[in-house]
Amino acid sequence: xxxxxxxxxxxxxxxxxxxxxxxxxxxxxxxxxxxxxxxxxxxxxxxxxxxxxxxxxxxxxxxxxxxxxxxxxxxxxxxxxxxxxxxxxxxxxxxxxxxxxxxxxxxxxxxxxxxxxxxxxxxxxxxxxxxxxxxxxxxxxxxxxxxxxxxxxxxxxxxxxxxxxxxxxxxxxxxxxxxxxxxxxxxxxxxxxxxxxxxxxxxxxxxxxxxxxxxxxxxxxxxxxxxxxxxxxxxxxxxxxxxxxxxxxxxxxxxxxxxxxxxxxxxxxxxxxxxxxxxxxxxxxxxxxxxxxxxxxxxxxxxxxxxxxxxxxxxxxxxxxxxxxxxxxxxxxxxxxxxxxxxxxxxxx
Amino acid sequence: xxxxxxxxxxxxxxxxxxxxxxxxxxxxxxxxxxxxxxxxxxxxxxxxxxxxxxxxxxxxxxxxxxxxxxxxxxxxxxxxxxxxxxxxxxxxxxxxxxxxxxxxxxxxxxxxxxxxxxxxxxxxxxxxxxxxxxxxxxxxxxxxxxxxxxxxxxxxxxxxxxxxxxxxxxxxxxxxxxxxxxxxxxxxxxxxxxxxxxxxxxxxxxxxxxxxxxxxxxxxxxxxxxxxxxxxxxxxxxxxxxxxxxxxxxxxxxxxxxxxxxxxxxxxxxxxxxxxxxxxxxxxxxxxxxxxxxxxxxxxxxxxxxxxxxxxxxxxxxxxxxxxxxxxxxxxxxxxxxxxxxxxxxxxx
Lengths: 349, 349
Prior knowledge:
The structure is a homodimer. By secondary structure, chain A is an alpha+beta fold. Chain A has eleven helices and 13 strands.
């Protein structure tokens, strides 16, 4: 597919590693005073001043985390940055820098790497992120990306996973399950394409789902919004594996239980309609779908007035004592135990 | 090979990602007060206090950067950390933290990942490094590691690549070329093994070379030594691709030329003997072999008395005006142009 798309192919071997690094980094600009030295030395140099530095890293591998048959390279670059920024925002911190390491096999021409970096650059511009370093090498098979994101925060603003207390409200931003369904739609189209390459897919009913899968946005705005509302979460995590799994992390680390309500889970109409079409349970999708890159957090019940009715937030339940376990209250008022069904990349399909 | 070695095999799919992370990180301890929060949240938190933060990252891929048929996993883990620490030391900074991301295919049992982390842990203990995060996932093929190292330094102590001045002395630590030759010896043994698996290799004559390849040590000691000697280099870089390539970086970024002397290149006797045996030019090996993880730096000529005769240092030449180019003065006093023949992973062999 890549071979077809690119009329001009420049071999990576011709350029070599240093040539490639120069070529792909020359359009990136630096916007933070904390970035003292970016690409071009043995290491980058940062000055956090009086703040604390927050660091997170993720590895994305072709065939495991993404499929280039429906993930355009520019989107992949953009999404890879989002995945990492999301972790920084989940600390209630401001993301400022990234390092990007890539490995590509010789089947990728320079133009493919340029596409990827165009997406990375767009993400950097949109979110004001400085690219400060990385590594560029060949792989024996496919493409992989390793991104490290760096942010900063005042010590007193940082929010960890371990501060949730019984009676705290559980809040989630945006809506859930759309990215997972977007993937299902794309997978279906891929199968159709295999059988009939002439088929023109009609994806009008799935635009939101596909956008959430291919071009997710990290919630940079939430830290600012919380500050405006004068709310400091007691715990926070980003929704990468699905909220079941994320609640499991918060409850384990905070030594508490939780109760969430099925009828409070925020679902986009396209999610509901597509779940019906695919005959899958929308609650399961919301709980375990993953890749939403929304933020899940807890606030003291005394903050109820500050968060209720805000269009960015859904209050989906509350924290309980540890011995209550993790419970989902269904629409028919039954309580069932939540299971952390996060994605396990080691499971063979 | 891995399958044969492990009597007990625990499947990674059984453990899952979180189980695996808990399992492999539980033996790591934290030794720096700058590590506020390590593994276990969305991001790690560091406090650099009044210092500047230095960050470097590297990607190591099976089949490209290492061959598990002769690189034991424990050594691989150790070496992967060294490669990254070396970049931090090349900034004249102190390395304090790392993040480690790994991807492994299902052919690796838990016991293999444990071996890898045993090497990482040994490196962390020996060099006082805190493991603060990472990512753990499956790959479609083989193993890969992505490590980010973080260090700190006073602003005034940092040494970049761009400060070399004409007349500065060019100094290299340790000796050169041994790691490259170690690789050649191991490659030869691999070929012999393929033909005759019963053959017992006699590697007594190559112990130093093999150790330099399989268990390199990063030069943590040099920053301290330079401080004791009251020497601040004008530029510094670590020798990962060979000094030709590293000199090329320093000269380009400093806008200068250089002249180095063939008879000053520090070579271990095993390097000289093995070059004769393999019928390869020892100067070429010293210049372009790579993976030495020594430090190459420049100091003002006024520091000559401070560095000369120190067993850790070899003065191999001096910086010249840019228009002089990069020159090697041979034993027969001929001047030939140095070429940056660093390794290009994109080149097909």
